[in-house]
Batch of 3 targets.
Target 1
Amino acid sequence: MRGETPDPALAARVEALLAGLIAANLGAAECDRGDCEACGRLAILEPDEPPPAPTPEAPPPPAPPADAGPAPEALAAFAYEATRVPGLTFSPRNALVLAKIRDGVVDDPADWVLHYKARLLGLQSGFDVLLSLPLIRGVRHYAYQVDTALRVLRTMRGRAILADEVGLGKTIEAGIVLKELVVRGLARKILILTPASLVAQWREEMETKFGLPFEIMDEFEDWARHDLVISSIDTAKRDVHREEIQRLAYDVVIVDEAHKLKNRTTKNWKLVASVRKKYMLLLTATPVQNDLEELFNLVTLLRPGTLSSFGGFRRRFLRRGDPRTPANPGELKRLLREVMIRNRRSTVLVLPPRRVFPAEIVLSRPERKLYEAVTDFVRDRYPAYGRGSTSVNRLALIVLQKEMGSSTFAAAETLRRMKESPNFAYEDRLVLGDLYERAAAITENEKARRLRELIAKIPDKTIVFTQYLRTLHVLRTMLEADGHAVSVFHGGLTPGEKEASVRAFREGNRVFLSTEAGGEGRNLQFCNTVVNFDLPWNPLKIEQRIGRVHRIGQTRDVVIVNLWARDTIEEYVMELLDKKINMFQLVIGELDLVLGRLDEAKTFEEVLMDIWTVKDLARRREELQRFGEELLAARQKYESTKSYEEGLFGNDLAAEAGP
Amino acid sequence: MTSPADLEAFVRRYFERRSAPLREEEPGVFRASLPESLRPAFDGADAIRISFDPGAAASAPRVDLVAVGSYLLDRIVEDATRAGWHTVARVEAPPTPPADVVAGSIRPKNATVAVDASSTETVPHLLFNFRVRMMSDERVDRFESVLVDSRTGKERRPAASLFEERPGLPEDGTVDGAGIAAAYRSACQALEGRIAADATAFREQAEALRKAEVERITSYFDRSVNEVLDSRASGASEARALELDRERRLAEAEEKYRFAGEVELCNVRTVLLDVMHADVTLEHRGARRTVRVEFDAATLDVPPLRCEVCGASTREPVLCFGGHLAGPECVSACGFCDRVHCRTCIAVEGAIAPCATCRRPACPDHAEVCALSRKPYCPDHIHACAICGRTVGPEYVARCVSCEQAYCVVCVAPPAERCQTCRSLAVAPPDDPAVAAIRRRDPGLAKVTKWRRASNQRFTVLIAKGLVWNQLLVTDPSGTVVLQKKVLGT
Ligand SMILES: [Zn+2]
Ligand SMILES: [Zn+2]
Ligand SMILES: [Zn+2]
Ligand SMILES: [Zn+2]
Ligand SMILES: [Zn+2]
Ligand SMILES: [Zn+2]
């Protein structure tokens, strides 16, 4: 059932979950059937309906079947009202059990014991332990995340700002808290609000990792019908949806990227403030972007009064003329500790250092000639193939240029297809045909030669990343010819084959040859050497590759070797990523923060191509320089934010920090 | 919390009972083929693969984890609670003689036990299994089983064996509707008594949190509204919005911390329980007491006796001098004989008081009160003065410097610190019996003719006058010389 759950089963499960949650939370509902012969008051299920399903962990008392139900006045004798414990109710269903006994129902003792033992399972005693941990799948959780969840549940009573630094898994922490509340029958209606771009990812993670099947709310969804809903905050704040959400009462509201709620006069803030909820989690890595009032607004949204009224806050914490530095930093931290948890990479993820080796190579003469010819062709045609029908050609050119950075073997195949493609003009196809002939004729590869030398020298297991399957196959043949045991890993493998490949690498193979980082969550940290045979033009992809080995569990220094050829676009990539933003030294997650500070509408890849295809060398260098400066500025901006947050929050807000 | 072993045992038994026993397919992974009848409970599957180990469940393909909160366990629980509402069990008196049962449960500190008469009757009981849930913004559960005598409504501690798979009886109707209702009420009352303290603590905690939250919210909105009205012309509409927000926040706080407790009756077992009665007689030093005890065949546990002084129960009662039964804490025993007084006896018989010197308790037979201090002393620490006959404690004992015997301080008067006896020595003729005895015994003194003598209730003091030195002798009632010393003549 797990993973491969067919849809009907999933649906049944959701139904069961929800029915159970309703029953567990509401007890016996008032019966809306005027003719209910069993009680006239109690909700008794139709005989042909399935019996009430249990919640996870909080199974409702299974109602005795209502066939031949006793008359209401007969049940009245079995009612009991608490006399010593105010607020305690004795379930009206108890009368149905008693009526069965009176009516002579006698069951098998084995069934009686099973029933008794079933009800003994999972008795809860406050948040002393997390019941949900064994139920979380396919994701490692760490001690600080467990500490965080326990602190949120125990001390913060389910209302918290989760402000871990990027890359520490705030989503996992939120998921643990959520699952815990669901498993304990404390949460039934849950609303997750995220930026539109993260809606699908949240849904996916909640389903696969936490077994919580959320429904994405789009334009025409009925909010009241679903208990577990995810929506983009933009969708939710539209009048028609907002009004409906405000009518409902949620048990939990989670807001991701909660810094979007930094202004309490905005619709976003007002929307979240107006939703009725018991528990609330606000997730953000950057609780303060411009000024401390943002922090006030966030905390007030969560727990008004924690930082006093705005006037009080201003008097106590704001300095005239400096909206970012608090007047009483110690006092502010103390108050924030009641509502905010901020775990820091430097304290929870102590990773060994990275050592980066740029391996610059010089292309062989035929490779060089071909690279220049292809580049000339690309530079010439790229600006011409603009939007619309020819944008396909533009993409082909990008791919071609990228493949040239990997190997002529990878490019040859694309050239062959391009020369035969009707999308290209006749004269282009002639040029492409010629380029293809030349590419196909090249059998030696300088980079590959260097890789063989490297592998021979490196004593340890090594992961080699390339973006292209054709490159991968050539390298595999070559390395195997050298006598190395090679595991390959690429998108064409079945899950079983992938598993086997990783296992073989772990258990003996020298080399792991992989296209793209693939296999999120796959543990490769037993290896500490990564060779980038070619460099993706998306820095986050490079980071993902490194992240395969540079993660918790890695005990040795991580060695990163970047292979790149002089006078190619890869030199540009290295220039920008290594020299300007030192990306190879950034901790996983930080790169995103740096790039997020770029005022650039285009993707990294597009910017790179735009620069590369400038024909005039001087202007090209100039453009590269300009973009480099931009990156540098972004990095500096990030650094200054980092040191600002260091001053504002320090280590005092970590989950395990002392009181 | 359920232990992993309990969980696994339950699940194994469940599948066995449903004719789909678990077989271990690979380490930690079990498989059950589901018979047709069981499939609807498991989404129509014809077989399932499960593991109790999250690690094994994650690494082996198509395996469902069975753990608290897991989907599969929920299905099992759902199915298991569809039947088994009520059974009837019979628990008969064992062949063990009642005297043995009593001897195992009542072990008096100081009395013999005899069981004089016993009888057995079968009493229908109802065993109620309750699940209690207390919720605020957290949740605490309890499981409570209450066994009730259906005739008297009296609660009885249920034996663990009452929860086992005992052979069932088809018979029923032993307790009628009214009886069931009455027993249920008694059980509910007993249950309330058990959980009242915890429920109160739980509710008070939630209430304290609610109060703090309401205060914080109220003060925030009070201040904010004032600030808005003070600072802006447009303040009025903003203030109205704040008021709305306040209402919502307060409602949230109420909702979040509202206490709700619910008691669910899970299932019931009618237990036809043999209940034995026995007259138990305790005997000690002439005191004798008979009590009637009752115990059931399931626990074979004679309830502890009640201390007649304080009401506490005790398995090691003491039968005191006056024939009362008391707990060990409520009696005192003499350290010199086997006499025991409870507090009731003390009123009648006097205290068993600790000796002012050694603290050892002594009963009225063994305690003496010092004539001078009025403090009690044990026989080891009381001193009877041989001159005046007073009994005094060690602090009022004095030694005469002359005869070196101990008397009470009254009889050894300062400043000379000689005792009354030594001060009243008088000339004795040589044929005085005491003098004559000494002269016969001691050839050295046989020639001495000048004697003085005095006696008290115990000692005789004699002085034989020599030329320069006199001899002082002290004899006890048997005539033994306990002291002989040279003293300067007068
Ligand atoms: Zn007592
Ligand atoms: Zn005595
Ligand atoms: Zn007594
Ligand atoms: Zn003494
Ligand atoms: Zn005296
Ligand atoms: Zn004397």
Note: Chain B touches chain A through 107 residues (CB under 8 Å).
Target 2
Amino acid sequence: MAKKETRSGAEAVVESLEAAGVEAVFGYPGGAVLDIFDFLTGAKFPFVLGRHEQGCIHMADGYARATGKPGTCIVTSGPGATNIVTGLATANIDGIPLVAITGQVSLPLIGTDAFQEADTTGLTRSVSKHNFLVHSADEIPETIAEAYYIATHGKPGPVVIDIPKNCQQAMTSAQYPERVSLRAYHPESWATAPEIARLAKLVNEAERPVIYAGGGVIASEAAKEVAALAHRADIPVATTLMGLGAFDENDPLSLRMAGMHGTPAANMAINEADLVIALGVRFSDRVTGRLSKYAPAAKIVHIDCDRASIGKNVRAALGITADVKDALTAVASRIKAAKRPEWTARVRGRLEEKPASWKRSRPGVIMPQEAIEAIGRAAKGRAIVATDVGQHQMWAAQFLRHAKPRRFLTSGGMGTMGFGIPAAIGAAVARPDLKPVAIVGDGGAQMTFEEVVVAVERSLPVAFFVINNGCLGMVRQWQELFYRKNYSGSILTPGGRAANEKIDAECVKNGRYLPDFVQLAKAHGAAAWRVTDPAKLDAAVARAIRSKKTTLVEIVVDPGANVYPMIPAGRTVADTVYGN
Amino acid sequence: MKSQTYRVSCYVENKPGVLARIVGLVSGRGYNIQTLEVGPTEDGSVSRMKMEIPGSEPAIEQIVLQLRNQVNVMEASFRKAGR
């Protein structure tokens, strides 16, 4: 790194990002970051220009999920900063390490309602792990070092650095620190010897144990340790949505995903277990259903690096605040080898007995589940898949075979529509060795479609699959099941709208889906085609997976398909709905 | 869950934005801070905050755990008020 005696704060920003080991920056310029952008052209890392700040931050998020390294995003003040709030919240709840640098109006102008002024630290406080407002150029190198430290230590999360324009322009000789030491922040925590002994005893004495693995397993790179524990003690493994890939679903011990749309095998195993070994999870309401009936026969062991998540939703017989990998490594030698053929056969058998029920495609109508299966078949385990949010997301969780960590990127906690397209681009930048794939719905695709340009202009071979059912499928499904089939605001096609949602008669008469995603993709420079015939589905999908170019495939599917099985919100495994 | 008033106290770095962060963490969860007292300790770089918050014990405990997660919070604890 260049150690110049004095340089501007803006130059110090870029120099510090290089010193922090940043390998890619996503962003969008504007008045209050022009000084920083002036030095980006000479930076050692590539700069990726998004088309909307929300796209930029989701790209940085996709990059971070794909690699485990912190993503970086630079945007301007005011609207630039407000546009990244959704992306910060998305990363914050899923524990994704990010550093977002926002420009700010000059210090003397703060509080004067200056042009493009917004209270960025106020706006981002509750959706970030931490944030800083820089007060002088001298603080810049140290603040950037601290931001990367905070983003990646303890439970990962997004950190915002708000840098006023005059601090970017002022001169400083401050250097990037060799080490970071924060006075009040010491998140490291290890399992104590008695905790490890207790953990081993509980596992060794259990007759019907289940491992329940979440995103924390992926964050702590503990997939190998989880597999070792499962195999040694013959314990079936269920994962959360965020934990998909933490355990190989091709493994005979895999029960696949638990929760609202999880497999009956996983949910019933947790219901019957005498020990639930919860690793890197936070017991989301989408997983537990009614808390008082959750895992009624089980003692719960909860290992998580975030002390605040232990005991937050479920009471744990043993709570251990530690990194999952460290704790499993420490306990490994004390776990007795075991075989429990009756238990594993019983819980695994249900994967076959009670699969998700759905109709196969019929002539002229592709079922969305089959579209996902076709993508899985063509990808052959060599893809990194980002999804948007809704029905297609659940089908992608259910119908792809998740084998490795960091290959399935999805907005779990926040459920952010518009995440899929930019996250896939971030993943494509991060992992050129894998085939980047986005599976998105027609609703979410319209929220961040502009980012397709970024993939095209950088020759990223992203295959975008738009699963088009002409409606906001998950909303429509809930309205069908719980709101008397009153499809208020959820139908995107011109027909079928309520009387007071009246749209232009010409549009209704044409009756076709808008936008035309194939034309839209072509206008963005991508190769694109549409498939409506089940007989042509595999070929249409495989062509995109094989292509070295940016492609988009619009897959028109049955608009009435629902996601099953489903445990309605706040209910129990006994209330599982298998289909209609 | 029985609601009572709890006294939450914490030691924080005396820096701009820390007070807002802590107050926001409590109010963002729908809790009302009835009294608030902030001042520097003998070590001027550290402030002590005392808050009285009505709520259930698990909710207050969760607030304290979240306070301890904050980068600028050195210590946080709670007890029942009025004793």
Note: The longest strand of chain A covers residues 98-104.
Target 3
Amino acid sequence: MLIQELNSYQSRSSYKDTRNLWTRATLSQPKLNVPRSKICDDSDAEGSSLGSKTRRGYSRKAGREPGDLHGHLSLEMELRRGSILGSHLEEDVDSKTETEVSSSESWLSMSRHTPHGAYWIEQQNRLPLPLMEVVENEALEILTKALWSEDGPDHFLTKHLQRYIEGLKRRRSKRLHLVMY
Amino acid sequence: MKLKQGSFLWYLYLDKLYCLLSVRNVKALLEYFHLLDVHHNNTLNDVLFYHFLRHVTSWKRTQIMIVFNMLDWNAMGEIGFDQFYMLVCILLAQQNHLEEQFIFRHSRPVFELLDLDGELRIGADHFHMYNFLFNIKKQELRELYHDFDITGDRRLNYKEFKLFTIFTMDKYQEKQKAEKEQGKTAPLKKKRPHRFILSSKLF
């Protein structure tokens, strides 16, 4: 029944709203006794969502196939990339953190009655905060090691990497400075 | 293989049924990818890819380069976010001991990854080369080719591979059931020796 619901949802071409697909996937977690035949029939379709750009399918464009979860995810994320990265990043994280803390209780109480309840509960689940600090620190460590291993100090890619690392460090110290004061 | 404790990937998790990341986790992963994408090509070259895996996993250089060559299916010397996402899912499946489930749920893309030559068949040597990814032991590999090579060409086509994934999934679920039942009966068994010791002391 779960797989039929998923298929009917996909046929309505509302795949653009990825929250719907994710919500149904999460709600399906307790229902592990779905008949194997249904899982097998559906697993190829789901498998194609992860491997939308494997060797055979590499020529397919992202987000063009119904049920291609990863395909339209990548398209959506690409569009949002420009607005999230860069100097706006710290502001987004700070404002997002405050908003989450203040509204967490109200969201949890509303989760049962609002559509996509499981999605909003997931929004409240915590990755370590501040998330971007963890991600940036780790990226900085990895890139610094990569720079040390580079053989050509005068190569334009090495110089580009060096400038990029310096930019990340400046952004990090600016953020720390704002947090302290 | 163990993910480095406290690393960003260590905090991520897969959906239990579909063995995929949630939308929120994918968004965070995309930010991470873009931070590592130094040259703004929406790709990671082999140097960045190597240092990333060296930092977050316990893999050796040869293993990392095998994975890179596997994912660089266009032979561009770079991998994009799609391949990066697939790699992260494989890493998380291994970390959380969900290899059987992952291969079952995503049998087609896994098959295409292992089919290096594009012949729609996987030889035992290819499987063996990637056994560190999916934690398949030598004995299991021998049994796999013995039991599922129906056509007898010593290679697996997709249908044979799919049968193998269904079989391993069945075994995995039976093992989980057995472990659960053991967990239920273990507390009862522990009490008996204690009672026996008490009774022996009295007499």
Note: Chain A touches chain B through 59 residues (CB under 8 Å).
